[in-house]
Amino acid sequence: MPAALRRRFAMLIAASLMAALAPARAQAALGNAAAAAPLGGDWRDWPVTPGTWVYRQDARGSIALFGVPGNDAEVTLRCDRAARALYLSRRGMAAGNPPMTVRTSSTTRALPMQPTGGTPAYMAVGLSPGDPLLDAIIYSRGRFVLEEAGLPTLVVPAWAEFARVTEDCRRL
User: Fold this and answer.
1) 48-100, pLDDT tens digit by residue?
2) What digits encode the pLDDT tens for the residues 5-28?
3) Is residue 124 predicted with pLDDT exceeding 60?
4) DSSP notation for the chain
5) Among 109, 89, 61, which residue's Cα sits nearest to residue 151?
6) How many whole angstroms separate alpha carbon 88 and alpha carbon 126?
7) Beta-carbon-side half-sphere exposure of residue 119 (alpha carbons within 13 Å)
């Protein structure tokens, strides 16, 4: 193969690889910018925390996990069948166990959080399946916010996985 043709072939491969990687790099840059951006003004205009929801079932019940795939979940909602309760948790440990404020388009409420004692560290609160806050989160206009002193503010999309776990517990 002539040298000029090899160079063109190598440039074509390099250009293809760069084009394939560009969307992933752009998404990573957006995610980092969203996490680092100062939050001000109306919370409904804040950038959504990078991640996606996943629904799973296991021996204990069902669980919805929100976060970046391949990393520990930032937020979970667990339906514990045996306890007939829902547990809302977020990753991280806040000194002094401050309350977590949940903001939805219809409700703002502070919840008493407790460390779960696991690794990685999570803070959690138990909720009854009929708690109106769950419906406020489910029907919030596109997103809800979790704020806890000492931990990053999370702007979480209100997707169907959260509602599915809530409904799983309500049917018990």
Assistant:
1) 999 999 999 999 999 999 999 999 999 999 999 999 999 999 999 999 999 99
2) 444 444 444 333 344 333 443 344
3) yes
4) --HHHHHHHHHHHHHHHHHHHHHHHHHHHHHHHHHHSPP-S-GGGSPPPS-EEEEEEETTEEEEEEE-TTS--SEEEEEETTTTEEEEEEES--TT-PPEEEE-SS-EEEE--EE---SS-EEEEEE-TT-HHHHHHHTSSSEEEEEETTS--EEEE--HHHHHHHHHHHT-
5) 89
6) 7
7) 0
The span from the first CA to the last CA of the chain, in angstroms, equals 70
Q: 84 to each of 46, 93, 97, 112, how far by Cα in Å?
A: 34, 26, 24, 19
Contact 166, 54 (CB under 8 A): no
* Residue 155 Rama label (left phi>0; alpha psi -120 to 50; beta): beta
pLDDT band at 1 (very low <50, low <70, confident <90, very high): low
The one-letter amino acid code at 66 reads: F
Comparing C-alpha atoms, which of 171, 144, 139 is closest to residue 157? 144
Token pair, residue 79, equals 């339906």
Indicate the residue type of 147. E
pLDDT computed for residue 117 by the predictor: 93
